[in-house]
Task: structure prediction
Amino acid sequence: MKEKRFAIVVSLLLVFTLLLSACTATVPAAPAPQTGGGEAAPAPAANIKIGLVTDVGRVNDRSFNQSAWEGVKQAGTALGLTEGDGFKYIETQDSKDYADNIQQFVDAGFNVIVTVGFALGEATTKAAKENPDTYFIGIDQFQGEALPNLTGLVFHEDQSGFLAGALAAQLSKTGTIAAVLGTDLVPPVVAFGTGYELGAKYINPDITVLTTYHPGEISQAFVDPEWGAATAKQALDQKADVIFGAGGSTGNGALQEVAAAPGAGTDVFCIGVDTDQWETLPAAHPCLVSSAMKLITPSVIDLINNYAASGTMTSGNYFGGAGLAPFHDFEDKIPQEVKDKLDEIAAGLADGSLTTGYQP
Amino acid sequence: MGKQRYRITSYIIGGILLVFLVMALLVNTTSLGENTWLRVFFGVSALNFTLRASVPLILGAMSGILCERTGIINIGIEGMMLAGAFAAFVAKTSTNHWPLMSSLLFGVAVALAVGGVMGWLHAVFSIRYRMDQIISGTVLIILAAGISAYLFDRNAVAEGKFGAIALPGLSQIPVVGEVLFTNPPLTYTTLILVVVIHIALFYTKWGLRSRACGEHPRAADTVGINVNRFRYMNTIIGGMLAGLAGGFLVLEAVGQFQEGMTAGRGFISLAAMIFGNWMPFGAMGAALLFGYTQALQNELLLAGVTTVPRQFVSMIPYVVTIVAVSGFVGRVRPPAAEGKVYETEGGSE
Result:
């Protein structure tokens, strides 16, 4: 009898297990809509509702999705909207759901829809054509043909990478530096990587730059920190002393590997990507001299504010800011002439007197 | 006959290792190192990568050997690894404020414990409830994947991971020192464990009894060995080893947890175990071979020496695995009583 009861408990446990694993796959990703609350909010400008569709991954990924959501959140809050009602996000679980997730927002009457990532480009363009009255912002989606209601928010990643490369080349003592990158199937990653190489060669034409891209498909390339770490170690073994980790958590794996290596912060250094990774990846502090940034958050805010204020949709491409993050704890360890050189390059890139030489 | 073949295989493997050692020494210390191709095959970075990629496979294979030698098929290594990885991550993140070393060691301890619990579950299912062992293992995989994904807090950050410790003296040996004696602690542990398990299995009373349970439990029982107690014990120890493999991934290889981060390593471990004929050193050799193919893939990409499309380079590890396993698997022999429930005559327990 006791045996039997135990068996029932065990089988229930197993059923529960299946339920759990099912949960993670189909859990409704969007947060439950909050009830608006009684107090009168400041009158929402022109009845704006902002929806954000993430790329595969979580909204709090300490990287790409998160920067975009921060932008939406700040812009929305400034406009007096509340989360859930005035602005919300849907986390994409599977790349085949891109179009459905966008459609959910369209159906729910959201009139500003932000889609995050190169991979959503096709779905976004299609949705923009079908819904001419809805304003779409596609992050990292370069627009070949301009649609009136779709802004491709893109960045000069090559410039940001160029600066990172110039910094790396000046820090390197061994004459070898490396870049551990997400996939070359995504153009912005290639821009970062190529910019890095060109920037390093600009400082020191004889420098060796070891560049590798993740060998897998788009779906794994940004979520494989183990590969990133192992590859960073490989580069260190080949005498690279500055490593640029660019590619979501794959790149983060590389940064953490360098941070744990002997001589981190004195002989070997790392450079992060996208956001100021000093803030997002504390584990990399021992080696993180800077990050090659693309300023997603402020650009998203600008675009939304622009639309809210004047109702204009920016057609075609909008170039957001790109540049190096602060040096933080390495502020005192980086020689002044290195900083001066970087400032000079940044100024040159900004006024067009210097080009990176990157051909998309 | 079997013994002779075993000896020949050992000679062949020893020969290959010797060639490797000589080539590695030459390439990394003489001007032969100027040749990119030789560096790809024998460079220190390739060898380091091999070891690193092999460690979780070796631990997984050891886990499989311990279980299967006593007659319990353990297909759930993947799940035990994942559970260990997740446990290590939770332990590490909740003790981030401790001194780094103690927090990491605590992570290892928790990974071992949780791996052990998974092993115990597998033993309970398959011994006490006589569940089909393949199904029980599959249940463990689903259990670990489901629970770890459900409970994973994506905001949690594990700060720091194990760094390399150079063994004084030994690490000064050219090439060999760099590859073998400048490693993080869990890598050393793994290499030592292989030797320990080999000796324990083949030169101790415990090992003889364990193997007897896997080959002919009735005979073992006749001479007074408690077969199921041995099976319980070894499955739990096996679970701990798999948990340690998970701990390695989180605390030493990456420093972070990812959903499904074991990425099939449990199954590759099983392949290594089979390819290695259920022998610790054989399984280690197989794991190193699999690790080496991954290293080769990455070295080729890093050196940029081929014009072959990347997708073909990425195929190397899988092709070698398939060729190796399909070419040799017919010649190995699993423990005779593997996967069979053992019941004493006249009793149910």
Q: What stands out?
A: Residues 57-153+162-266 of chain B form one domain. DSSP finds 14 helices and two strands in chain B. Chain B touches chain A through 49 residues (CB under 8 Å). Strands of chain B lie at 165-166, 182-183.
